[in-house]
């Protein structure tokens, strides 16, 4: 019986994953990953209830169940990263970081060390082998099986979570099962109800766990020092009002400005040096739109199409957009363009794109045929070739 | 459903509910309003307070009605200005209230009984408040409060003799005890006493704080000056009516209930004690299985324990798993205080009586009550011991699995013969113990 360690969050997706894996004959151990949380009055991550829900399902299915504590790592690699990004005026995506650093690195490593054949999570995504997908063209890199593994979009287009998974390593992907990736959310819920799982009707958790229900702004207030400053209209430089810290605002944001009635204002620019937030009523303002986008910290899962034509997703659940991608050499990176796009075939695992991208901060640029609404710096842009997730990068300034 | 968690909550008694209902609808008036129907509500409220007070040998005017034991405890601690001494196994409400000022913990023995010597040792002149629960909420251990109050009386005398006038109050949280003990504030010698309706078949969200004459507390909520200005806010009339009815009822049936619970507890003790004996039998059949089954440890000392409490430690078992297994069989039981159980933190009570982390993880709190009868308990006891055995097999099987895997890894050896524990269990356990059939 192949041994699987399943990350169980207490939600319906990982619970149904447990049911499916068990039915498929795996030897399943449920793991609750304890992440960092801050207990402040009125600010509570519901982890204790989630843990109880996860354990209840595991026990119901007669699975072994353990709690693995990743609190310190999570604090360091996810929370601190997030805070430092906000401090720089950027809008980070902690879920992407959590998947890369915690779930598909630490959890994966520990599971493999414990003798797991696979890990599994309740994410909506699929894993496929390149041969099956690109049927005819058998890749030359057969010796590197990790190289043939593809992260693929979920069947349920509305729930697809590859946007958050694009940075998980190919090595982990090769050993990962996404049991609900072939199902739609309604099917998952129906299955949960059918199996008598109490979590079938559980309210879906939204947002970042450790922030809880109070929202990101209140959370940041606890950690980052901010100064009140002016909100100015970009066209006139007129002071329209005041904000309580420029870092709390994101480009494109229209809520929470408290500028009174009338037509809404949009945040178009942040001047962090002078602590000024610039707004405009003009939704067509040049700063809100762009034809091209500079990316940094690229994570490429596989070779990009030689044409450079890909589809990209700017936000979770946003529609796929056509774009051309150009890779650029980063100043400190020793790897040449050529190496990144077409890694030289060498012996052993060194030919995995993973290896080629490691250790250097890759830069890239996307060119769009029609202007897109500019995503905030720090957000992720994820690349696709049809069903296949090619990787992605983080929006630079 | 068999409910075995009466220490967490009790269903409102039908009489109490019936008594409350008119005060939600036709007799809804504000007791402070000037017209006659409101005056009648005021009279009903005051008489209900008297009734509650009579249950503990006090008068209605000695009580402050609160929204439950936690509020009563917080209010009680306003009497402390210098340093408090609290028992190490107190409810978290007491510990949290104590921690807001200077405090020290008094240790307990392995039964959860106060170590009076420790109290004497720590009772310095700075101490102005001592809080000792009448009966513990996880172990049911009943504290010798009369002895405690005698120690405090002597300390007061000693202080006065030395010209020290710092007051020294004794507060007791009697939340768990009202329906199982004949409480009399004079006999106990307490200055403040916390009561909770929800633990004795009254409604939730209502409690009381008894104050002896001369005890000075400060209000936590101010406003219209209700409850002698000590707890403002429009009175919870139906709550107090329900509280009074339930408390009076409980008092009337005290010894009858106690006897019933003692019988039920005996059944549980006997059945759970059989676990290793049954296992022994299975073990003889499958002697390559070393199940690591230990004798259950019954916590607390029955001589000083509420009759309804059966706290038990099952070494090697994950009690949380038992809870989820049992709920599937319609048996509701808990590991400890609901507040602590939900937060994934280990019980400070069980740690204080010297249990190891593994023993704490294997501890169940069974608490009996008005919803139980002897037949139910017999049935529940069998199901619990059956599930405990199955858990021992599960743990053993996964251990064997690990051993087997590592042996296979090391060399291509033939796997260790394990035998399936589950089969052995079903074969050797009497048919009526078969889970699927025993409980409908």
Describe the structure in your own words.
The complex is a heterodimer of chains A (397) and B (440). Chain A is of the alpha/beta class. In chain A, 26% of the residues lie in helices and 26% in strands. In chain A, the strands form 3 sheets. A 6-stranded antiparallel β-barrel of chain A has the order 12-15-14-13-16-17. Chain A has a 5-stranded parallel β-sheet with strand order 3-2-1-4-7, with helices on both faces. Chain A has a 4-stranded mixed β-sheet with strand order 9-8-11-10, with no helix packed on it. Chain A is globular. Chain A starts with a strand and ends with a strand. Mean pLDDT of chain A is 85; it is low at 136-144 and 333-360. With 440 residues, chain B is an alpha/beta fold. Helices cover 43% and strands 11% of the residues of chain B. Chain B has a 7-stranded mixed β-sheet, sandwiched between helices. In chain B, α6 links the parallel β5 and β6. In chain B, α1 runs antiparallel to α8, α2 packs parallel to α8 and α9 runs parallel beside α15. Mean pLDDT of chain B is 88; it is low at 410-440. Chain A binds chain B through residues 27, 47-49, 51-52, 55-56, 59-60, 62, 64-65, 67, 115, and chain B through 320-321, 324-325, 327-328, 342-344, 394, 398, 401-402, 405.
């Amino acid at each position: 019986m192949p041994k699987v360690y399943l990350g169980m969050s207490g939600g319906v997706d990982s619970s149904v994953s447990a049911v499916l894996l068990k039915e498929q004959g795996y030897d399943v151990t449920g793991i609750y990953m304890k992440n960092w949380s801050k207990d402040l009055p009125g600010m509570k991550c519901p982890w204790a209830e989630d843990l109880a829900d996860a354990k209840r399902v595991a026990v119901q299915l007669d699975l072994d169940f353990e709690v693995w504590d990743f609190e310190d790592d999570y604090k360091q690699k996810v929370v601190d990263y997030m805070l430092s990004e906000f401090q720089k005026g950027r809008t980070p995506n902690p879920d992407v970081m959590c998947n890369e650093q915690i779930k598909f690195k630490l959890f994966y490593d520990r599971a493999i060390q414990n003798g797991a054949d696979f890990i599994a999570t309740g994410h909506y995504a699929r894993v496929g082998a390149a041969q099956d997908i690109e049927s005819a063209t058998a890749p030359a890199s057969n010796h590197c099986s990790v190289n043939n593994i593809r992260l693929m979009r979920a069947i349920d287009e509305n729930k697809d979570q590859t946007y958050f998974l694009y940075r998980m390593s190919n090595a982990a992907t090769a050993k990962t099962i996404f049991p609900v990736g072939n199902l739609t959310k309604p099917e998952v819920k129906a299955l949960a109800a059918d199996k008598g799982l109490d979590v079938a009707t559980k309210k879906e958790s939204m947002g970042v766990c450790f922030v809880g229900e109070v929202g990101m702004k209140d959370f940041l207030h606890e950690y980052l020092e901010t100064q009140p400053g002016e909100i100015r209209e970009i066209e006139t430089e007129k002071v329209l009002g005041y904000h309580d810290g420029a870092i709390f605002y994101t480009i494109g944001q229209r809520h929470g400005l408290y500028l009174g009635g009338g037509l809404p204002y949009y945040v178009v620019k942040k001047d962090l040096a002078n602590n000024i937030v610039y707004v405009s009523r003009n939704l067509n303002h040049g700063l809100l739109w762009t034809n091209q986008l500079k990316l940094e910290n690229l994570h490429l899962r596989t070779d990009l199409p030689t044409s450079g034509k890909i589809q990209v997703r700017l936000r979770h659940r946003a529609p796929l957009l056509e774009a051309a991608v150009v890779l650029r050499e980063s100043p400190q990176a020793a790897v040449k363009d050529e190496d990144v796009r077409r890694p030289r075939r060498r012996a052993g695992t060194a030919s995995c794109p993973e290896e080629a991208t490691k250790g250097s901060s890759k830069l890239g640029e996307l060119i769009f045929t029609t202007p897109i609404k500019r995503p905030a710096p720090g957000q992720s842009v994820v690349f696709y070739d049809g069903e296949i997730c090619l990787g992605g990068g983080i929006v630079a300034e | 459903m068999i409910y075995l968690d009466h220490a967490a909550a009790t269903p409102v008694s039908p009489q109490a509910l019936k008594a409350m209902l008119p005060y939600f609808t036709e007799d809804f008036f504000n007791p402070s309003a000037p017209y006659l129907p409101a005056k009648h509500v005021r009279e009903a409220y005051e008489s209900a307070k008297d009734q509650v007070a009579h249950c503990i040998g006090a008068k209605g005017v000695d009580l402050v009605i609160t929204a439950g034991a936690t509020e009563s405890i917080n209010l009680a601690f306003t009497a402390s200005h210098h340093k408090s001494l609290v028992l190490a196994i107190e409810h978290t409400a007491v510990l949290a209230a104590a921690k807001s000022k200077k405090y020290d913990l008094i240790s307990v023995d392995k039964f959860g009984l106060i170590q009076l010597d420790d109290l004497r040792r720590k009772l310095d002149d700075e101490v102005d408040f001592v809080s000792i629960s009448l009966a513990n909420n996880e172990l049911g251990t009943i504290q010798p409060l009369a002895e405690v109050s005698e120690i405090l009386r002597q300390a007061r005398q000693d202080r006065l003799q030395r010209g020290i006038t710092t007051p020294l109050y004794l507060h007791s949280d009697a939340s768990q005890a009202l329906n199982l003990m004949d409480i009399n504030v004079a006999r106990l010698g307490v200055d403040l006493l916390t009561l909770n309706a929800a633990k004795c078949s009254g409604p939730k969200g209502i409690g009381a704080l008894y104050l002896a004459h001369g005890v000075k507390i400060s209000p936590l909520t101010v406003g219209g000056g209700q409850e002698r200005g000590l707890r403002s806010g429009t009175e919870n009339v139906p709550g107090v009516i329900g509280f009074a009815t339930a408390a009076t009822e409980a008092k009337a049936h005290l010894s009858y209930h106690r006897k019933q619970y003692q019988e039920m507890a005996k059944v549980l003790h006997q059945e759970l004690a059989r676990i290793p004996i049954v296992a022994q039998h299975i073990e003889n059949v499958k002697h390559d299985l070393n199940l690591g089954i230990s004798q259950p440890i019954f916590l607390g000392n029955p001589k000083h324990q509420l009759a309804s409490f059966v706290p038990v430690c099952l070494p090697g078992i994950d009690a949380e798993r038992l809870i989820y297994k049992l709920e599937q069989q319609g048996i509701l039981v808990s590991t400890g205080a609901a507040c602590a159980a939900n937060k994934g933190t280990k019980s400070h009570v069980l740690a204080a009586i010297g249990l190891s982390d593994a023993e704490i993880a294997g501890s169940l709190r069974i608490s009996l009550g008005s919803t139980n009868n002897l037949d139910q308990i017999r049935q529940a006891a069998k199901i619990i011991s059956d599930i405990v055995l199955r858990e021992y097999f599960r743990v053993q099987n996964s251990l064997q699995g690990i051993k087997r895997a590592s042996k296979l890894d090391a060399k291509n050896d033939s796997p260790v013969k394990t035998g399936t524990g589950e089969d052995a269990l079903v074969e050797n356990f009497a048919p009526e113990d078969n889970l699927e059939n025993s409980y409908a």
